[in-house]
């Protein structure tokens, strides 16, 4: 967790420059692009020249609404934004989305943005929903998009980016230490008695970092002695605390408290999206790393626990393979 002074600095003082990297002729996928950070990220990238921006939205109606709004604002061509249905809680929906992505001529950027911070307990994929959406669904999709990113790198001599919108809150996640390291972590959280919803979001963001650390060590690891000719970049970032629809299902006193806190401290989603765009064009030196306030930030000790990184990665792989047998071959396919 950032210290109080760091939080106040990044929320109230830090100047976040408008991104200026070119996205000319790039094809981008943004999950959850109908709202909040995803929608603002799309606008920045279109301004910066992206030729195709695909919105992965669980509600095509909300996706089309956002598309029309952006086209009106930016006066951009109607063929730049395309809305595809994507529900991260449904392997069939993810599979359909991947089939469409595989038919694209190229794929330069994937923003794993869609996420939830829930106020009530439900079970999805045989675990608590926050972990299901932010980790299982997110990486069930992400793994299947890797081959297209890699193909684009090889065919076009570019460096595609897969950027995950994580959170600085990973650092205060409470891992169920006392249970030992041989339990099924996702099954553990299927039991409501084990779930503290305040912690679940933070834990899901910690797991995202564990997964990215492992995935980036397998796919195109940095090797100065043996540089990869067509690598991709897998990184993550904290976009600051921003005014968006996240935590929108709070009620009563927590809702009032959160609204006041947000009104005082939160940045606009447009500012947070500047950091997303920056990470999505940050280059190979950010492979496997986490950016905060516009720069690479060292992982906190909780994210550096190698045993746990491997353990959560293995647990995730088992879950993904169960949901979609053969899905892990996507990783083998991009290993060079
Ligand atoms: N806002 C912050 O302060 C902050 C800080 C750190 C990190 N983040 C991260 O930023 C990302 C974007 O969040 P946001 O703040 O922009 O919140 P948001 O306004 O609530 O947007 C979340 C997006 O995710 C989509 N989504 C949720 N569940 C989904 C599912 N099952 N399948 C597909 N899409 C789904 C939502 O779709 P619907 O519109 O259909 O619900 C929405 O488009 C999240 O990963 C969040 O954890 C946010």
Automatic annotation (TrEMBL):
Q: Which InterPro entries match?
A: NAD(P)-bd_dom_sf (IPR036291), SDR_fam (IPR002347)
Keywords assigned by UniProt, alphabetized: Oxidoreductase
The Swiss-Prot or TrEMBL record annotates one GO molecular function as: oxidoreductase activity
Would you say which domain of life the source belongs to?
Eukaryota
**Which Pfam families does the record associate with it?**
adh_short
Q: Which family does it belong to?
A: Belongs to the short-chain dehydrogenases/reductases (SDR) family.
| Protein's name in the database | NAD(P)-binding protein
- Species name for this entry? Capronia epimyces CBS 606.96
Traced from the root, the source organism's taxonomic lineage reads:
Eukaryota, Fungi, Dikarya, Ascomycota, Pezizomycotina
